[in-house]
From TrEMBL:
It comes from Natronococcus pandeyae. It holds the Pfam family ECH_1. It comes from the Archaea. CDD domains: crotonase-like (cd06558). InterPro entries: ClpP/crotonase-like_dom_sf (IPR029045), Enoyl-CoA_hyd/isom_CS (IPR018376), Enoyl-CoA_hydra/iso (IPR001753). Belongs to the enoyl-CoA hydratase/isomerase family. Gene3D superfamilies: 2-enoyl-CoA Hydratase, Chain A, domain 1 (3.90.226.10). Coiled coil: none annotated. This is Enoyl-CoA hydratase/isomerase family protein. GO terms for molecular function: catalytic activity.
Amino acid sequence: MIDVDGDGSVRIVTIERPARRNALTVEALESLETAIADAEEPVIALRGAGPAFCAGADLEVVADLDREGAEEFARVGQRVARTIEESPAVVVAEIDGPARGGGLELALACDVRVGTPDSTYGEPGVTFGLFGAWGGTVRLPRIVGEGDALEFACSGRVVDAEEALRMGLVSRLEDDPRTATAEIAANAADALPVLKRRIRDDRDRETQERLEAEAFGDLVVSHAADLDAVLE
């Protein structure tokens, strides 16, 4: 259900269940976690096979869960989202078609979200008494702001690509999201994880600035020859 490919600079991780709009079971989530955690490439592209990005949790599985099983399913999804967020690689969600529920939540954990003009976004769980529990209530307000997060999640409505861009659900729109991934992968492989760590750091400003300066110093030393070439 999870296909892994790559060229050495980008690991391509594809959710392969198009007949179910790439809905995820516990087993698929665990495979996705492994695919992300094992990556040695500086960039990871997360894609969905077929006409959807990801429908989120497989509701046929959820319907059969008791309370304990439901909580565990949520914890597994949360763990996968954290694995994406904490990966050293820059993770790009390449969103074409619908991103719903847990699929959107996994995209929110990615570092960059690039949609196509045909992409759509929604947290429809509230319409049948549920909500996204793979870290969505944590990340959504942080990314789009509390007001938009509450309206979006509580209405259960679907937004199109342009509104998603306005809200900040996606970083940019491209006819082919791989364009953005290629732009990122074309940069220095050792600088990308440093940038991710520094931007993701939520410690006090003094600590962040100290680590930023140290990281900058390390990169200046390691890229001295590149700097000389730029100045020639």
